[in-house]
User: Which sequence fits this backbone?
């Protein structure tokens, strides 16, 4: 029995719209990562980019459960001595609300060249407006449990 793989050029790419208002950060991030990887398609292949474009709006209004707003810490190092930068989720939301959601989605994608290619199909906006109306994005409901 032979196996047929979809050609990367023949993959039909759609645009999806996710509204992050009052949605839990992890739930919307996993939904976006699934759409970006193409796992929702019947011809998903791990070594091909079969995913779609994802537009996320209202990223500034995403919810964090429990006490994560104050206890979750984002760290990065500048490379210089004493260059450790730490900020809580509350501080990051105040400074760059889009980055909160982008980091969560990026963490759920593969850490390869293919993952970077998938990540480039993500657009996140802090407010309800986005410049991708011409692509007619399909709204996807996010479970709010």
Assistant:
């Amino acid at each position: 029995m032979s196996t047929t793989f979809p050609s990367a050029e023949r993959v039909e790419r759609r645009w999806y719209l996710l509204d992050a208002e009052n949605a839990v950060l992890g739930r919307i991030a996993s939904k976006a990562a699934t759409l970006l990887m193409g796992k929702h398609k019947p011809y998903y292949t791990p070594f091909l980019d079969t995913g779609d474009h994802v537009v996320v709006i209202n990223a500034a209004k995403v919810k964090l459960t429990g006490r994560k707003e104050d206890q979750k810490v984002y760290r990065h190092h500048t490379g210089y001595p004493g260059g450790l930068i730490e900020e809580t989720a509350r501080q990051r939301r105040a400074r760059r609300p889009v980055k909160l959601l982008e980091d969560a989605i990026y963490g759920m994608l593969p850490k390869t060249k293919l993952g970077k290619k998938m990540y480039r199909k993500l657009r996140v906006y802090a407010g309800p407006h986005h410049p991708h109306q011409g692509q007619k994005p399909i709204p996807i409901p996010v479970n709010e449990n």
Observations:
- Strands lie at 15-19, 53-57, 73-77, 84-88, 122-124, 138-140.
- The longest strand covers residues 15-19.
- The CA atoms of residues 20 and 62 lie 5 Å apart.
